[in-house]
Amino acid sequence: MSTTTEPISLHPFTAADAERLLAGEVDPRDGWEGGYSFTEEPELLDEYLGAVRSGGDPAPYGPYLIRRGTDGNAIGGVNLFRSDDPGVIEFVFALVPATRGQGLGRHAVAAAIELIRSLGASVVRAECEVDNLPARRALEQVGLVVVSRTPELIRYELRLSPA
Hints:
The chain is α+β, with helices and mostly antiparallel strands. It has helices spanning 15-22, 42-55, 104-118, 133-141; strands at residues 3-5, 8-12, 62-68, 74-82, 88-95, 123-129, 145-149, 153-159. The chain has an eight-stranded mixed beta sheet with strand order 1-2-3-4-5-6-8-7, with helices on one face.
């Protein structure tokens, strides 16, 4: 399931994608902005593949690529997590360094929320490091509010209206 919120879209990342990247097969058509790809974070790929092997494909949970609408380049990722709380879906997001500071984080968060809403969740949750001011702003601009805080992390939440 893909989700589009101008100027970006989210696309499911598959086990085949992860295996290909771990094998060092970065296709220029993948379009990673700034030359970055998940190969720079192999532990994320290994963790994802381990989860797929032990429990099967987690879709619609799991990783999604963030692609810029103007050129289709991959500019980051969103990861959806099933919560122990019924009706709650948690997510994290990140942008590649070459695209930070362009306001795309807000669009990535909005697209993640729309995807989560389409899955029938009633609550969205996200955590952010206290020092990550751009990510905090992106979460807050889209309507998530602080529900708890530690010296290192801030937990955000948004209650979704029924469709």
